[in-house]
Amino acid sequence: MMRAWMLPMSFVVSGVLVSTTLFVDGSRGVAVALVLLFVLLAGLHSPLAFPRSVGAAEAQRRSAVDGRPVVYWRAGCTYCLRLRFRLGRGARRLHWVDIWRDPAGAAVVRTANEGDETVPTVVVAGRPHVNPDPKWLRGQLPPSA
After folding, report:
1. From start to end of the chain, where are the E strands?
2. Of 1, 45, 107, 122, which residue is the least packed, with the fewest Cβ within 10 Å?
3. What range defines the domain where residue 112 resides?
4. C-alpha count within 13 angstroms, C-beta hemisphere, residue 125
5. CA distances from 85 to 18, 63, 116, 127, 142 (A)
6. What number of other Cβ atoms are within 10 A of residue 2's Cβ?
7. In 3-state terms, what secondary structure has residue 123?
8. Residues 44, 105: one domain?
């Protein structure tokens, strides 16, 4: 779990250090703007930007019941972030598994990607798809109830 927060925290620490230097030099407005930018980047690269994750076993069980795809992701992944935001509200209709929090999820991803932990890996009807087009993935969602 700690690994998922390393990148966001490094953004915050870097932002504070840079902003402090600018603040001391008298550029208060720029310092405030930069620290806000770094905090925004930290939020975007944190687990907070994604729907609540479940374990791989639970996601697979839920997917078998409701037919929704399972997305294996990790914090700090630019491609995962792109997929999440391009799906918009539809992202909540997927089952999300954070591979840094769930070793079983990481094992599923390694099996699907010849030993690599390449994310996002999306499993639709038992078939893995690496970094799929968000438009295609939206089409794989079952109709809303």
Report:
1. 70-73, 95-98, 121-124, 127-130
2. 1
3. 50-140
4. 4
5. 28, 21, 24, 23, 19
6. 7
7. strand
8. no
Q: Indicate whether 145 belongs to any domain.
A: no
Q: Which helix (H) or strand (E) holds 96?
A: strand 95-98
Query: Are residues 27 and 59 part of one domain?
Result: no
What is d(CA 22, CA 94) in angstroms, rounded to the nearest whole number?
A: 43
Tens digit of pLDDT per residue, the chain (145 long)?
A: 577 788 888 989 999 999 999 999 989 999 999 999 999 988 887 777 778 889 999 999 999 999 999 999 998 899 998 999 899 888 889 999 999 999 999 999 999 999 999 999 999 999 999 999 999 999 988 776 5
**Tokens for 140?**
């794989």
CATH number of the domain where residue 79 is located: 3.40.30.10
